[in-house]
Amino acid sequence: MTRRQIPDTLTLEERAGHALNAMVGMADREYGGIPFFAANLMTDPANLTHGDWDFGSSHGRMIDGMILARHMSGETFGAETEQRYRDNLMSFFKEDGLSYRQTNPNYDWEPNANLIDQRAVILSLTTWFMATGDAKAKEAADRHVAALKRIAIKEREVWYYPASEYKEGGWPSANAAQLRLAPDPAAFCGRLVMPLLKYHELTGNRDAFELCQFFVALIVERSGVFNKDGSFNDALAYRSGHFHTRLGTLDAIARFGAFTGDASLIAFVEKSYAWALTQCTAFGWTPGDMKEQAYEHETCSLVDLIATGITLAKSGYTKYWGTVERFIRNHLTESQLLDLDWVRETDDRSRNVAGKISYTNVAASTRGAFAGYSAPNDFCCDVNHGRGHTNDLQICCLGSGTRGLYMGWSNTVTEKDGKISVNFLLNRGSKWLDIESHLPHEGKVVLRVHRDLPSLQVRIPEWAGFAKVRFVRERDGSATEGRGSEPSRWVKECFLQLNEAYAGETITITFPLSERTTVETAIGQTFVTQWRGDDVVGIAPSGTKHPLYTGRRVFDEAPMREGELRRLENELVW
Predict the structure, then answer these.
(1) What is the domain class of 414-512 according to CATH?
(2) Which superkingdom, per the lineage (predicted)?
(3) What is the pLDDT of residues 376-405, one digit of tens each?
């Protein structure tokens, strides 16, 4: 890394450093370091609360998120908190290999191995082992995968879980298994495929692959989660078409299809993904479900949308690179809590109840977190529909938001068979080249090449056209110019083919910016949205609690700052 003048524009690794602050700050020092689950920022003072998600789910997401954030940003603070999260996670395992929710003196839930929790547990163990090679993490993961296989109800072509919670004595009802009462297969089986598949890729674990194989068959062939036209089944038994679990399942199936070379699975996912986009805004707001929670956008859902779009784009649906970049530039980063002047907080501890609620230093603890339930135009959702105002922050969204940053960062520049592809026009350092993005101020991207590259291509936004795209290549004191209108310059519709590139070369690409207005619809509400390139620079009506998209300033030339773009020789591939 070298410090120089770089554009003062969106840099995802810096956002990861802010997220790390929240992942450290959410730990409850008065309750064994167990993280708070939710925050209400609209009370005076704001508060943090615990819940039954505190255990495998929250710890798994924090461990995964902290590892990815450190890898992106190079930040080292909070190591003691991260170690406490890891120690806590290991303490939740019982002899059967599953992770169990613990008792809490303030609540009356029973200890159980919740199937949604298990997904976050194997996710964290996989990232932990990937990053460190820690034998303890692998041992726990192997036992965990074996347990997930052991408790699955197995039929000839599909496996499933007949309840949402498993207890030490077994499934609560043998009759549920006999009647094939698999509750919400997407939530309890489909989303498990993503981390299980990665664990299989890393270790060759056959149990993990078998679970993926039979769970995917369950979803695609038998479950009814997705309708024939790709839409989500909105029946109550299917959680009213809950977007986070459906999109997370699509992400998982797309990855499995890509891994196995099954084009039919990729086509299955693309059909549902295309339908899902019709329910979302172009800048990335998603419904919570199709009924009671429709107005409650989760950052988790958006990150699933980002991850699925990336896999589809890599599989040949290249139009989704642009879709995903709009999501990253807008609702993902806009949903990160960086300005806390509006949050009312206190340093008083007298009203705190250990293990239940805290009113102390909430703003400082949550800086860098992601919205739990946001409106299209407001960090806080307080509409007159659905459930009204609920949580403003949720720790699942903090973990997912961090993972969303990582998916954008790690897929900005990719390599396959010697070809380097610049997929997102975001600031990014890499071992091959650095990207300096002047967007949204100017239609300008500068590439600084570090190594000889046999083939280089750069995605140009669809709104830029091709006739006015220009590039200048400078090397060893000489410069050559090229145009997007030249024959044979374009591949896969949106990639500008630059062919060979050489160490020390600087390539400057320019194109006209698009300024336009669209009307976005979110569950019957309309928003007039102003765009500059792929960035939303204004939205009406404006939010009333903590308005989004109101502080984005645009200049004729991109402001510059001294900085560095992080380069890693080996990156964690998720």
Answers:
(1) mainly beta
(2) Bacteria
(3) 999 999 888 878 888 999 999 999 999 999
